[in-house]
Design brief:
1% strand, 2 domains, Cytochrome C Oxidase, Chain A, single chain
């Protein structure tokens, strides 16, 4: 077979020599952008975990004052915001970026520079959210976001939160929203237009399908939170009254807009983990995924029904019996496609030749913990039950079983599964299994007692409590569990750094786990252009059929191909800088109007320059 493209593509070979730092700053390679997302997510996950440890330390015993009420409000606000928007979402984006072109047989996403732009914009949004919190010793506490990650009006209005804290929160989330929308459209277009010849939609890997569903959820739900944030910004900066009853506004408008985004957001967080588990379980069971089309269509159904359940978060707001009944039914209905996935995963491992690798342990842990979280969630589909459990620690336990036991365990399974593909070497299997059990025990020790203390009446979002209520022992156990999780995360980070820096140990090879999809055709790590020639696909499990029959699986044509990839570019970084600068300028305008407007005009100039130079740049 002729391999004309073993060398670096001409576009990249012709690029000027760059320093190591500049090569990452200017990269448009989807694999490097995936790595940047992943490393950023781990850093913010650690930051959010530190915030959680302070919260748990404060609640370990009654009547403590390790932090005051204002600091506690800032801690749980930033913990929730950080874990959702800066931890789980970008870690999912890391897998999207690295794997989707490889799984569909493409050389990159369809808009590589837009992909780079979305990462840098995400990073700037994360900085805007966290700078006030990280500079606590040097700034007024009133600039630290402290209105809760849910931002309920009218608490977040200027009257009740007069400082700049919510302004920073609004600005950071708006920047993150633009970044997510840019990535969402990019992946939708990529999946529909860059699939390898022969790869029909039903031949795509399940992870690619879940990614596609997630991107539609992103582009359809993020406008809701954007509108909500813009209205809140106008209330705070320009004196409108969208959410203020005394001015004719409605505080429930915020809740409707927020949860119309917020519940699809739950599936934005969990569907990538479902896709990962749907790849890992078949590989380590040595069986095809049982009922793969049903798993795919159940994911699509979850995405569709996810837009029809938002008001189950509002059963206690007095919407009326008709609304409560309608949203109760849709919430119960969404359990059906979720249950389909769980039974398909169980049928996949049933009778399989199981290999209990670290990745497989996390996948099995995901199935167990997510099932528990789902069962407690079904309880909240009943308005009478929800009335009892709302705003209690029972709800905290429920969504942590879904988002930590579910999403985070699934993402960790993916890290151990695809790390050899990304790095060329393995994470430690022996240490990985120890870390899994530390996290598994620590997780259940932390969050299972929250069901008990929540049922005993402990409300969420309180920074201290009195002795004698029966909450002391469960809270102490939860705090011990939280520090156990911290030990597991510390060991994981140490092992990750050691494995990245290691130059010894066995090489992974192209397909160390004997996976079935196209990413296992390429080298580990893949070339910058992924494939020397574009594969032609004949099966939904091309590598397995190629190796074990009965069909050809895939073929690599002998026709020489011209490989075109855009060269590295600094323009996405400039454009992201300009967009973030422009949005921050309005935050400044709330305090210093003239300076803020002038700053916004300068930012517009940066944006225009970046756009014009982007399209005039050679190799576009």
């Amino acid at each position: 077979m002729a391999n004309p493209a073993h060398a670096v593509p001409a576009d990249h070979a012709a690029a000027p020599t760059q320093s190591y730092f500049m090569s990452w700053l200017m990269t448009t390679d989807h694999k490097r952008i995936g790595v940047l997302y992943g490393l950023s997510a781990i850093c913010f996950f650690v930051l959010g975990g530190i915030e959680a440890l302070v919260i748990r330390t404060q609640l370990a015993a009654p009547g403590q004052h390790i932090v005051d009420a204002a600091t506690y409000n800032a801690l749980f606000t930033m913990h929730g915001t950080t874990m959702i928007f800066l931890g789980v979402m970008p870690m999912s984006a890391a897998f999207f970026n690295y794997l989707i072109p490889l799984q569909i047989g493409a050389r990159d996403v369809v808009f590589p520079r837009l992909n780079a732009f979305s990462f840098w914009l995400f990073l700037f949004g994360a900085i805007v959210l966290n700078v006030p919190f990280l500079l606590t010793p040097f700034v007024d506490m009133r600039v630290i976001p402290d209105g809760g990650w849910f931002g309920y009006a009218t608490l977040t209005e200027k009257t009740y939160t007069p400082g700049a804290s919510i302004d920073f929160w609004i600005c950071g989330l708006q920047i993150l929203g633009v970044a997510s929308m840019a990535a969402g459209f990019n992946f939708i277009v990529t999946i529909f237009n860059l699939r390898a010849p022969g790869m029909s939609l039903l031949r795509m890997p399940v992870f690619t399908w879940m990614t596609l569903v997630v991107q539609f959820l992103v582009v359809l739900s993020f406008p809701c939170i954007t509108i909500a944030l813009v209205l809140l910004m106008f209330d705070r900066l320009f004196g409108t009254h969208f959410y203020m009853p005394e001015g004719g506004g409605d505080p429930l408008l915020w809740q409707h807009l927020f949860w119309l985004f917020g519940h699809p957001e739950v599936y934005i967080l969990i569907l990538p983990a479902m896709g990962i588990v749907s790849e890992v379980l078949p590989t380590f069971s040595r069986k095809p995924l049982f009922g793969a089309p049903f798993v795919i269509f159940s994911g699509i159904t979850i995405g569709l029904l996810g837009f029809g359940v938002w008001s189950h978060h509002m059963f206690t707001t007095g919407l009326g019996a008709t609304s409560d009944a309608a949203f109760s039914v849709t919430t119960m209905l969404i359990a059906i496609p979720t249950g389909v996935k769980i039974f398909n995963w169980l049928a996949t491992i049933w009778g399989g030749q199981l290999r209990l690798t670290t990745s497989m342990l996390y996948a099995l842990g995901f199935v167990c913990m997510f099932t528990m979280g789902g069962l407690s969630g079904i309880m909240h589909a009943s308005p009478p039950v929800d009335l009892q459990q709302q705003d209690s620690y029972f709800v905290v336990a429920h969504f942590h079983y879904v988002l930590f036991g579910g999403a985070v365990f699934g993402l960790l399974s993916g890290i151990y599964y695809w790390f050899p593909k990304m790095n060329g070497r393995f994470l430690s299997e022996s240490w990985g299994k120890v870390i899994f059990w530390i996290l598994f025990v620590g997780f259940n020790t932390t969050f299972f007692p929250m069901h008990i203390v929540g049922a005993a009446g402990m409300p969420r979002r309180i920074y201290t409590y009195d002795a004698g209520l029966g909450w002391e022992t469960p809270n102490l156990i939860e705090t011990v569990g939280a520090f156990t999780i911290a030990v597991g995360v510390l060991f994981f980070v140490i092992d990750l750094v050691r494995s990245i820096r290691s130059t010894s140990g066995p090489l992974a090879g192209p397909n160390p786990w004997d996976g079935s999809s196209l990413e296992w055709v390429t080298e580990s790590p893949p070339k910058v252009h992924n494939f020397d020639v574009t594969p032609t696909v004949y099966s939904e499990r091309p590598v397995w059929e190629k190796n074990y029959g009965p069909g050809p699986g895939y073929s690599l044509p002998t026709v020489e191909e011209h490989i075109h990839l855009p060269p590295p570019s600094i323009r996405p970084f400039y454009l992201a800088t300009g967009v973030a600068w422009f949005l921050v300028s309005w935050l400044v305008a709330g305090q210093f109007f003239t300076f803020g407007v002038c700053s916004a005009l300068v930012a517009v100039c940066v944006i225009l320059y970046s756009c014009v130079s982007w399209f005039l740049e050679e190799g576009h």
